[in-house]
């Protein structure tokens, strides 16, 4: 999961990031936290049409820039109906405007500029909700190696690929490790039914959530971890179509 904090008060942004990092440090889920001071900073790094459905936002409402938090949330929601958006505000009456604009936030964090420590309880409650949502959508993939079983959260799987010239062996790349094991793509594909897993290729199973970029002409697929593959024109078209349909 990626969690974006966008808060124009530097001290409050720093406080939110530190509070969340400390709380999530030893939790059973990997959360990448990125923080920005305003919408422009965020949009210089991330494209709205490339956001994942598992992304989450803590958005200050009143940026002092051309686009405020409500404007940014509206733009995000038009592209992504699934990501979680929590608004940070000192004005509870802003909820009416947000509802009227069809943003459908997951909740609000009410802040007191004079006492930012008062938001800690609300921030931790948000973090607990995000963990619960992520766990409810996760499942475990089992790899058997002799008498041993290795259990992996499918959200951590980046790619599974057949190993050239080693028939019957697969290479599994995750966020934390690489594993070589005996099996076939066709046998394990039915176990990976999550909507973000692409399982209709003969030599690969891809996690669409981990793809960073696709180059159609060269057949080059780059994953967020830095791992990359080069495939044929026919396969790159299938991957591109699956990626665009999913997002």
Contiguous uncertain segments of 5+ residues: none
Strand order of the largest sheet: 2-1-3-4-5
Overall pLDDT score: 87
- Provide a count of the helices: 7
The overall strand count is 15
Structural class: alpha/beta
Beta percentage is 25-35%
Give a quick account of the main beta sheet: strands, pairing sense, barrel closure: 5 strands, parallel
Characteristics of this structure?
247 residues; alpha/beta; five-stranded parallel beta sheet; five-stranded antiparallel beta sheet
In short:
It contains seven helices and 15 strands. The protein has 247 residues and is an alpha/beta fold.
Structure description:
The protein has 247 residues and is an alpha/beta fold. The chain has helices at residues 10-24, 39-45, 69-79, 94-100, 120-136, 185-188, 233-246, and strands spanning 2-6, 32-36, 56-60, 84-89, 107-110, 140-145, 148-153, 157-162, 169-174, 178-182, 197-198, 204-207, 211-215, 220-223, 228-230. The chain has seven helices and 15 strands. A five-stranded parallel beta sheet has the order 2-1-3-4-5, sandwiched between helices. A five-stranded antiparallel beta sheet has the order 10-9-8-12-11, with no helix packed on it. It has a three-stranded antiparallel beta sheet with strand order 13-14-15, with helices on one face. The chain is elongated and about 65 Å long.
